[in-house]
Amino acid sequence: MTSLETSPSEPIHNLPSDKQENRMSNAQSVQTARAVGANKPQAAQTEHVAEVLKVSTRSRPSAVAGAIAGVIRENGMAEVQSIGAGATNQAIKAVAIARSYLNEEGIDIICVPSFIDVAIDEEERTAIRLLIERR
Protein backbone atom coordinates (compact mmCIF):
# COMPACT_ATOMS: atom_id res chain seq x y z
CA MET A 1 0.00 0.00 0.00
CA THR A 2 1.43 3.38 -0.97
CA SER A 3 1.26 6.46 1.22
CA LEU A 4 -1.57 7.79 -0.93
CA GLU A 5 -3.86 4.81 -0.32
CA THR A 6 -5.83 4.03 2.79
CA SER A 7 -7.11 0.71 4.02
CA PRO A 8 -10.74 -0.09 3.10
CA SER A 9 -11.39 -1.02 6.74
CA GLU A 10 -10.09 2.30 8.07
CA PRO A 11 -13.05 4.48 9.18
CA ILE A 12 -13.53 7.89 7.60
CA HIS A 13 -16.01 10.28 9.18
CA ASN A 14 -16.40 12.83 6.37
CA LEU A 15 -16.60 12.49 2.63
CA PRO A 16 -13.42 13.65 0.92
CA SER A 17 -12.83 17.17 -0.23
CA ASP A 18 -11.55 17.55 -3.79
CA LYS A 19 -7.96 17.34 -2.51
CA GLN A 20 -8.67 14.36 -0.26
CA GLU A 21 -10.70 12.56 -2.93
CA ASN A 22 -7.62 12.31 -5.14
CA ARG A 23 -5.85 10.34 -2.40
CA MET A 24 -8.62 7.78 -1.97
CA SER A 25 -8.40 4.61 -4.01
CA ASN A 26 -10.89 2.23 -2.39
CA ALA A 27 -14.20 2.38 -0.60
CA GLN A 28 -13.96 3.80 2.90
CA SER A 29 -16.40 2.82 5.65
CA VAL A 30 -18.18 4.59 8.48
CA GLN A 31 -21.35 3.73 10.32
CA THR A 32 -24.38 5.96 9.57
CA ALA A 33 -25.83 8.90 7.64
CA ARG A 34 -29.11 10.85 7.54
CA ALA A 35 -31.17 11.71 4.49
CA VAL A 36 -31.31 15.32 3.27
CA GLY A 37 -34.50 17.28 3.70
CA ALA A 38 -35.51 15.60 6.93
CA ASN A 39 -37.47 18.40 8.57
CA LYS A 40 -38.88 16.22 11.33
CA PRO A 41 -37.70 16.56 14.93
CA GLN A 42 -34.52 14.60 15.61
CA ALA A 43 -36.32 11.73 17.38
CA ALA A 44 -38.79 11.26 14.50
CA GLN A 45 -36.19 11.11 11.73
CA THR A 46 -35.64 7.75 10.10
CA GLU A 47 -32.00 6.77 10.09
CA HIS A 48 -30.70 3.74 8.28
CA VAL A 49 -27.86 2.17 10.17
CA ALA A 50 -25.81 0.36 7.58
CA GLU A 51 -22.20 -0.01 6.59
CA VAL A 52 -21.32 3.17 4.65
CA LEU A 53 -18.91 2.81 1.76
CA LYS A 54 -17.48 6.06 0.44
CA VAL A 55 -16.50 6.03 -3.21
CA SER A 56 -14.16 8.39 -5.05
CA THR A 57 -13.40 8.88 -8.72
CA ARG A 58 -10.33 6.69 -8.30
CA SER A 59 -12.14 3.82 -6.56
CA ARG A 60 -12.01 0.55 -8.48
CA PRO A 61 -15.61 -0.56 -9.16
CA SER A 62 -14.73 -4.25 -8.73
CA ALA A 63 -13.16 -3.58 -5.31
CA VAL A 64 -16.16 -1.51 -4.20
CA ALA A 65 -18.48 -4.23 -5.57
CA GLY A 66 -16.72 -6.83 -3.46
CA ALA A 67 -17.15 -4.63 -0.39
CA ILE A 68 -20.85 -4.07 -1.19
CA ALA A 69 -21.42 -7.81 -1.69
CA GLY A 70 -19.68 -8.63 1.59
CA VAL A 71 -21.70 -6.08 3.55
CA ILE A 72 -24.96 -7.27 1.95
CA ARG A 73 -24.15 -10.89 2.83
CA GLU A 74 -23.38 -9.90 6.41
CA ASN A 75 -25.99 -7.20 7.13
CA GLY A 76 -28.52 -7.36 4.29
CA MET A 77 -28.05 -3.62 3.70
CA ALA A 78 -25.25 -1.30 2.60
CA GLU A 79 -24.94 2.40 1.93
CA VAL A 80 -22.69 3.95 -0.71
CA GLN A 81 -21.87 7.67 -0.73
CA SER A 82 -20.22 9.69 -3.48
CA ILE A 83 -19.62 13.32 -4.37
CA GLY A 84 -19.35 14.33 -8.00
CA ALA A 85 -20.12 12.74 -11.34
CA GLY A 86 -16.96 10.62 -11.55
CA ALA A 87 -17.38 9.14 -8.08
CA THR A 88 -21.08 8.51 -8.67
CA ASN A 89 -20.27 6.76 -11.96
CA GLN A 90 -17.85 4.45 -10.15
CA ALA A 91 -20.45 3.79 -7.44
CA ILE A 92 -23.19 2.85 -9.94
CA LYS A 93 -20.82 0.52 -11.78
CA ALA A 94 -19.92 -1.08 -8.44
CA VAL A 95 -23.60 -1.70 -7.63
CA ALA A 96 -24.11 -3.40 -11.01
CA ILE A 97 -21.04 -5.59 -10.48
CA ALA A 98 -22.07 -6.42 -6.89
CA ARG A 99 -25.48 -7.47 -8.18
CA SER A 100 -23.85 -9.99 -10.52
CA TYR A 101 -21.62 -11.29 -7.68
CA LEU A 102 -24.64 -11.77 -5.43
CA ASN A 103 -26.88 -13.25 -8.15
CA GLU A 104 -24.46 -16.20 -8.34
CA GLU A 105 -25.53 -16.97 -4.75
CA GLY A 106 -29.25 -16.44 -5.40
CA ILE A 107 -29.30 -12.98 -3.76
CA ASP A 108 -30.93 -10.07 -5.60
CA ILE A 109 -30.51 -6.45 -4.53
CA ILE A 110 -32.22 -3.13 -5.12
CA CYS A 111 -30.66 0.34 -5.05
CA VAL A 112 -32.50 3.44 -3.83
CA PRO A 113 -30.73 6.73 -4.62
CA SER A 114 -31.12 9.93 -2.60
CA PHE A 115 -29.26 13.11 -1.67
CA ILE A 116 -27.60 13.75 1.68
CA ASP A 117 -25.82 16.76 3.14
CA VAL A 118 -22.37 16.07 4.55
CA ALA A 119 -19.95 18.37 6.36
CA ILE A 120 -16.48 18.57 4.84
CA ASP A 121 -13.96 21.00 6.28
CA GLU A 122 -16.80 22.80 8.08
CA GLU A 123 -18.68 23.21 4.77
CA GLU A 124 -21.94 21.56 3.77
CA ARG A 125 -21.73 19.50 0.56
CA THR A 126 -24.39 17.47 -1.17
CA ALA A 127 -23.58 13.83 -1.80
CA ILE A 128 -25.36 11.01 -3.58
CA ARG A 129 -26.49 8.23 -1.27
CA LEU A 130 -27.23 4.78 -2.65
CA LEU A 131 -29.07 2.55 -0.18
CA ILE A 132 -28.62 -1.05 -1.29
CA GLU A 133 -30.82 -3.78 0.18
CA ARG A 134 -31.75 -7.37 -0.48
CA ARG A 135 -34.83 -7.63 -2.64
Question: What does the model show?
Answer:
Pfam families: SpoVS. Residues 23-32 have a biased composition (Polar residues). This is Stage V sporulation protein S. This protein starts with 17 loop residues before the first helix and ends with a strand. The chain has helices spanning 18-21, 61-75, 85-103, and strands at residues 28-33, 48-55, 77-82, 109-120, 123-134. The protein has one domain (18-134): Translation Initiation Factor IF3 (2-Layer Sandwich). It has a five-stranded mixed sheet with strand order 1-2-3-5-4. Helix 2 packs across helix 3 (85-103). It is of the alpha+beta class and 135 residues long. Helix content is 28%, strand content 33%. A hairpin with a 2-residue loop joins strand 4 (109-120) and strand 5 (123-134).
As laid out across the biggest beta sheet, the strand order is: 1-2-3-5-4
Number of helices: 3
Largest sheet: 5 strands, mixed
Low-pLDDT runs of 5+ residues are: 1-46
CATH uppermost class: Alpha Beta
The CATH topology:
Translation Initiation Factor IF3
Instruction: Indicate the overall shape.
Output: globular
Question: How many angstroms separate the termini?
Answer: 36 Å
Radius of gyration: 14 Å
> What percent of residues adopt helix (DSSP H or I)?
25-40%
Protein name: Stage V sporulation protein S
GO molecular function: nucleic acid binding
Pfam families: SpoVS
